[in-house]
Amino acid sequence: MLPRIVRSPVLLLGILAFACLSARTSRGQSPATSAKVGDMAREESPLVVTLKTDRSSYKLGDKITIRVLLTNRSESPLYLYAALDWGESASLSLWVKDAVSGKDVPEEFIADALPPPPTSKDAFIKLLPDHIYGVVLVSNPADLNIREKGIYELTAEYHSPVPSSMSFGLPIWGREKGSVSSNTVKITVGE
User: Fold this and answer.
1) What span, in angstroms and rounded, lies between the C-alpha atoms of 177 and 156?
2) 3 state DSSP class of 167
3) Which of 7, 84, 95, 147 has the highest count of CB atoms within 10 angstroms of its CB?
4) What is the number of other CB atoms lying within 10 angstroms of the CB of residue 70?
5) pLDDT at site 74
């Protein structure tokens, strides 16, 4: 004899549906917030990093204008350390790769601005939902160690230089959240 609760097909379906949803969320995944990367599922970042260049083709002596834009895709404000400087100790890194060989272009000079620790809430910017905050870098190919003609791939990364413990009570995007990579932009460099 089946228990009374299992005799109702509608109630049984409801219990099974609840059990399936509970099992899915207990593993930290939900269809709306997870993305499949290789064999690993990861939560999509509310912070999106976009890399843009002013053109797709340059000569070795040209200036390249690179824009890095940070977009808040969440429904809540994000607080970011306002100083967007270049380097592993700062907020932004730029990576260059030879698109044909797939090899990284080694850096001769490694930019690494060490930002001062925040002294107040004023060191952070409030990035509202669907708002953009960014920085422009004007460089020449040689500064990026591009010394030969070819096709290159540029990628930027945002990483907060400030740990969450230095937030002054704000819900900041802290160092603990790791790096967020941008899209990849291909440029052609000729003579």
Assistant:
1) 16
2) coil
3) 84
4) 25
5) 93
CATH (residue range 45-190): 2.60.40.2970
Distances in Å between the alpha carbon of 54 and those of 49, 103, 121, 160?
17, 24, 34, 26
Instruction: Give the pLDDT confidence of 14-30 residue by residue, as tens digits.
Output: 444 333 333 333 333 22
CA–CA dist 18, 45 (Å, integer): 27
pLDDT digits (tens, 9 = 90+) for 101-153: 999 998 776 677 778 889 999 999 999 999 999 999 999 999 999 999 999 99
**Taking residues 37-50, what's their average pLDDT?**
67
Angle at 143 between CA 137 and CA 144, to 5 degrees: 80
**How far, in Å, CA of 31 to CA of 17, rounded?**
15
Q: Which residue has 């390249």 as its token pair?
A: 64
64 and 53 in contact (C-beta within 8 Å)?
A: yes
What is the pLDDT, as a whole number, of residue 36?
34
